[in-house]
């Protein structure tokens, strides 16, 4: 199994490197003319502009390194704790899919597509999109791994209601563009939670991101006081999730129903896993419920002992 994982990783990194060569091969089509050579009497040096293909090659190298770093950390974590059900299979599928797309277009460029400016332009734009997707997957995998492995910050304390209002304010322009009403309902006199503001932001941002993908109507971010802490809930009025899927909803890469998402906004199934890992590392837990209509996900975080 370890040999197979190494082989898959090697194939992925080879494909990314192969794309870099293809981008360089297509470079003359997208490069700007070199600047004129300055007169010997003018003591200035004008740097050559970076071509778009060179910029793409650099982005590929950054994505390659991010993927490698995320993969190494995940393998270390799984060696110590064991992988969640289906996580390895899902991870490899999500990495192979954009890499296969990249490799196909790279081969087309090397096979003569770079000689047609329109074709080269289209393929490089598509390649750039897949690089963004790989970078996003790598970043989210790295965040998930860190949340699963790292201990909570010592003495962490924050106002979850204030963080909820900040998240809603930040996401309101996006919601407005989608025609969705995004609202915050913050209970008064909430105790401080035993978590950092960054962790609370991570929980709420991922829940709001999911909800905005899954509804065309209303999303509500709610905070409420409980006996032992604070309940964070994000609720939408979308189609909901079948009860059969609820037990696995927080597994990495698990996507219960593609039809729940709005078209091209489908994610890779890491948002709820990140939410669950973040809540657990701070002594909390998560739950999900289908409504009629709608869906809600909650994270319970303990209050600071001096504030409970």
General description of the model:
This protein has 8 helices and 5 strands; from the N terminus they run ααααααβαββαββ. With 308 residues, the protein is α+β, with helices and mostly antiparallel strands. It has 2 domains: 148 residues; 143 residues, Heat Shock Protein 90 (2-Layer Sandwich), CATH 3.30.565.10. A 5-stranded mixed beta sheet has the order 1-2-3-5-4, covered by helices on one side. Strand 4 and strand 5 form a beta hairpin. Helix 1 packs antiparallel against helix 3, helix 3 packs parallel to helix 5 and helix 5 packs parallel to helix 8. The termini are far apart.
Number of spatially distinct domains: 2
Largest sheet, spatial ordering of strands: 1-2-3-5-4
Strand element count: 5
- Major β-sheet profile: 5 strands, mixed
What is Rg? 23 Å
Q: Helical element count?
A: 8
Mean pLDDT, nearest integer? 74
Secondary-structure class: alpha+beta
Pick out the low-confidence regions. Answer: 1-45, 84-89
Q: Please bin the fraction of helical residues.
A: 40-55%
Q: Termini separation (Å)?
A: 48 Å
Query: Which outline best applies?
Result: elongated
SSE succession? HHHHHHEHEEHEE
* Beta-strand residue fraction: 5-15%
Features:
2 domains, 5 strands, elongated, 308 residues, alpha+beta, five-stranded mixed β-sheet, Heat Shock Protein 90, 53% helix, disordered N terminus, 8 helices
Compose a concise summary of this entry:
With 308 residues, the protein is of the alpha+beta class. It is built from 8 helices and 5 strands.
Summarize the helices and strands and which ones pair or pack.
Elements: H1 2-25, H2 27-30, H3 52-81, H4 87-110, H5 117-149, H6 160-177, E1 181-186, H7 197-214, E2 218-226, E3 229-236, H8 271-281, E4 285-290, E5 295-302
